[in-house]
Amino acid sequence: MLSARNVVKHYGGVQALKGVDFDIYRGTVTTLFGENGAGKSTLMKILSGVEQPTDGQLILDGEPVRFASTVEAQHRGISIIHQELSLAPNMSVRDNIFMGRELRRAGGVDYAEEARQAAALMTELEEDIHPLTKVGDLRVGQQQIVEIARALSVDARILIMDEPTSALSATEVEVLFKVIRDLTARGVAIVYISHHLEEALEITDHAVVLRDGSMTAKAERADIDLAWIVRNMVGENFDLGSPPTGYEFGDTLLSVQSLTVPDDSNVDRAAVDHLSLDVRAGEVVCIYGLMGAGRTELLEALAGASQVSDGKVMLEGRDVTHMDIAQRIAAGLVLVPEDRQRDGLVQTMTVGRNLSLASIGAFVKNLFLSNSGERGLVDDSIRDVHVKTDGPGAMIGSLSGGNQQKVVIGKMVTTDPKVILLDEPSRGIDIGAKAEVFKLLAERAKQGLGVVYSTSEVNECLSIAHRIIVMGRGRIVAEFGPDVSKEQIMAASGESVAA
């Protein structure tokens, strides 16, 4: 249906794509694999009219085409679900789905029909979201569903999905895959990008691998496995590390005592229910749980982003329960949030300013900023967390999603914290970058940092964690050491749901 031939893309002196050939077939799923910065999102932006190629050609239905905008691409049946959510949080689900292409009737917009169609899309995606709900009130996974619904509402012939499951639960992923198979059965072509490699293998018909802006491999589903993907992406089989060893844990840094966090959506239950947990210096603790288990609510409450109704948060014996976010950062308790776009980055700032933002007070003297001191910190941070960038002066929006996530992590690490909390730290990060991030956290743990990270991926529990906590319905339902199996972890989380 659509082919890219010898597509080249330059951004200043950086060549993002180096003569890429890429084909999309009717009624099939073509999966595009590659590390952050490999050129995947750039290629998809060109195919959907967001960007124009520096050189090369697009061929649609056998004819050369050039899309000047996403509107032109949509008119030719091409729609994209972007990796980063592009929703208006102050508008309703209905209005976001039909924004810019409102349904008209005599006298104005047909809001009733828009609501009906929005409700039908939510039913198809098996998500109980009212069309008039404000998007800003939804959790990240539900916002991702709205983004998918908006793309489905266009009735596209070619649907590009760039990390569509990055914030979805396992159940929501299953529903999305069912929708994808329904679409391909009707002849729709799907382009699918995901860093969840095993998940992508379930849905793909054709696989293409990009590396450093060039296509390194392509094959049919029957001829590929996980090792093939990793080998062609990064050249060798990365693992996510192992629990750091060679030292003894220090004293308790973080003590959570019978913490209770109210559930804003349900007054009859608590998001976190009288939970107690201690974290020692040098210890890496993983918190695992299904969607709704309370992982995010726990970490946000610990960081001061939400109120608690009962219990205490102690940091090195000091009560920080009623401190605000800035005070907790100063005390040494920091959070890398789940939603980097909304809570972790300032899009109008450079890479360097985003990295130094949480530490900027250390470089201000007599109302003047010490540029040399800030620059040294930024350069060190870029090197430590392996950010791929043109330099500190590059705008944060020019980075791939995974590199933006590294900036958020680097920003918090530069504050020299005692305990770092990370909510889904690998969201939108490829396998190589995951290994780098977990290696960084393991190194900091060996230096005495307390590390607490949450994840919905079982494999990540078995990487660098000394201790794995399984949550369900706001409580700790199981606790394991590093020798636990994936099956034991999953069984514990399943039991918590059934209880």
Quick structural overview:
The chain has 499 residues and is of the alpha/beta class. It is built from 17 helices and 24 strands.
- Please write the CATH class name of the largest domain: Alpha Beta
Looking at CATH, the homologous superfamily of the largest domain is P-loop containing nucleotide triphosphate hydrolases
- The class by helix and strand makeup works out as alpha/beta
As for the number of domains, it is 2
> Which geometry do the CA atoms define?
globular
Protein name: ABC transporter ATP-binding protein
Membrane topology: Peripheral membrane protein
Domain ABC transporter: 2-237, 254-498
GO molecular function: ATP binding; ATP hydrolysis activity
Written overview of the protein:
This protein has 2 domains: 233 residues, P-loop containing nucleotide triphosphate hydrolases (Rossmann fold, 3-Layer(aba) Sandwich), CATH 3.40.50; 247 residues, P-loop containing nucleotide triphosphate hydrolases (Rossmann fold, 3-Layer(aba) Sandwich). With 499 residues, it is α/β, with parallel strands linked by helices. It is a peripheral membrane protein. InterPro entries: AAA+_ATPase (IPR003593), ABC_carbohydrate_import_ATPase (IPR050107), ABC_transporter-like_ATP-bd (IPR003439), ABC_transporter-like_CS (IPR017871), P-loop_NTPase (IPR027417). It holds the Pfam family ABC_tran. GO terms for molecular function: ATP binding; ATP hydrolysis activity.
